[in-house]
Amino acid sequence: MHKCFKCGQEFEGNFCPKCGSRYEETKTCPACGTTLDYAVNFCNNCGYRFDTADKANDENRKGAVSFEFGEKFYRVTNQILKWSPCVLLLLFAVLNFVFMSLSAYSAFGMDMGSIYKITDADYKLTATVLIVVCSLTAFYALAYPLLLGKRAKAAHIIAFVMYVLVLAVSCTMHVQIKKGDWTVESATKLLIAFAVVFGVLAAVAIAADVTLTKRSKNYANAKNAIRDNSQPTFTQKAAHYIKLWYSAHKKAANGTIIGVCSAAVLCVLVFAVIIPVATNIFRVGKVAKINLGDSKEQVIKVLGEPKYGDSKSNTWQYFGKELTSLMNRQEELNKQMENLADFGQLGKLMEEQAKLDEQIAKTVDKYIAVDFDSNEKVSSVTFDAAYNKLTQYQPKEVKNVTVGNKNTVDVVDISNNSVKVQAKYTDGSYKLTTLPSNITASDFGETNGNFPSSATFSWQDNWGSYSEQVKIDESNFDFSWNYDSRDCTLTLNGNLPSKGLYNLFQIKNFPWIENNYEIKQLYLYDSVTNVTNINDLLLDGSILERIDVDNSNENYSSLHGVLFDKNKTKVIYIPQAAEGIIKDTKGNVFYNGRSISAEGGSWGTYLIFASCSSDELELPYFNDGNYGIYSNVLEKFTKLTFDSQFTDIKVDFCSSEHNKTITIVTIPTTVSSISGSIYDLDNINSVYYKGSLTDWCKFSFGGQASNPLYRGAKLYINDDLLTEL
Fold it and tell me: Which residue, among 578, 532, 525, 573, has the nearest Cα to 553 in the 3D structure?
């Protein structure tokens, strides 16, 4: 049985038989939306009176109508104002990635590329920060729908932070581009413009919401009522279930959250810090990976292929982004002028070239130079953090210097001029090289061996002056010597020190020179590996007769007192008083008539006779038969024969008392002329010609000095004495 709340009639069913009213168990307050029992006359939430006959009810009804309007207005307006900053932020993030693919700036009419292509050290950090900011913006804008509504204020704050960051970074780029006298292109302009416009729109949305909340009581009441009585949203329900799961799996959840956060931080570090740093070659940490003696392949692994300096070049150069772009443009202009068809454009191109040269001259950028020796091994590395074409040789302020191995220097390295030096400068520059030859030493420590235990090395180069206290290491210095006065022989054993090494430590000279020992013979043991200049070892090089080498020496050998390399393919030194040598005017050395491609001694290069008979010397044919014979070569022989390859005897014989031993000369049938100075063999008494008398009569002589019969020698034709014609 139901009772009609309108007329009081009791009835069964859903409608009153007296007034026709529908039976309802609940009703909704029109003022605040609270669900109430149908029998109540007042809303227990806002006090609304359901009795329409009362005057107060008329006023409440007016309020209800006003509130209903406010509720509808809020539902539309609040959603717009609430979501506007986040929607704008999402759109802004997407647009940022589009803008950054456009041109950032141009120079001399050449597009320098998008922000993604800016890799120079001066701009890399700016571009990286901008990309990271936009990435975070997009991430937050996409993640916002999963956040609780009560966190909208936090979303608005983050949105404004993102706008400000993008605006600040974009303005910084704009200023840097302007400083370079370049043209700001669309990417930077659009980033600045949209950061301002979207920031203002978001601010207007938030300001409108705050203003309506403060100035409209009904708006504020309706806003609070709907917020307090609204049904849980999907995200709120999801958050509730997540909270329940988190409570049941708190330990595992903490680990998951920490892992996700750590992964996110790691990703940011990798893309924002690690990758830009690892790929940037213009920093000391990168350049310092190159060591002296590294190959070109090892340099490529560290710095990549050089833009300037091909694989055969002795110097590889790497320029920063700014200079590289300008130099590329310079190459383009040169090609345009080379292929110019319309000479009317020449003046314009030359004007642009002049401006470009001026720009290059005043540009400060980063620069790396790697020098290689003749064996294509690294001999020096230079990194200039503030390179300028006009000021590249000006001094820098030295930060720290390391000599050798942590300021410990090996005596052998000093002797070989291979002491490593690493210098760092306050402007971030770096240099790797060897100690120059102009170093001086002072402040010597106590002498415990051959040299002082420490010293202060001082030197200078184009970047500055240096002075470092170093320790002297003699552990590898195994040099010893002995002098035998009986035959004036000097024996050397171990690594041979340079004369300059003694002078560096204010030791005047080698001990045997200081003692005025005459050296006629020099013997090198197997441990001698670094002979450089024999003359530095001698008081008087003109009396040195021979050099002998231990057979087990892996670097040197000797033949007839002449110093060779191990395989006898290169002459290193020929003693000035050596016997049995013939000078080659073209720089070849022969022994047994075979060339050994020598590089000569103190008088050039020479012919060495390895085997001859006791009294007969056969001159080999080389250099077209054109060479000279040193005077003392012939003094042990009485007979002289020419090789059958001779057609014209061009050999010159020095006029000397040593030539007087030659009395018999044999000429092969192949010879038809003599243009050399055989006349100087002034004791010839017999000439044997292997051809016919007719051939002899056709003989051609260069003059009386070329005729062996000039001094009255007898002529034998095929061993028969010629007595008449």
Answer: 525
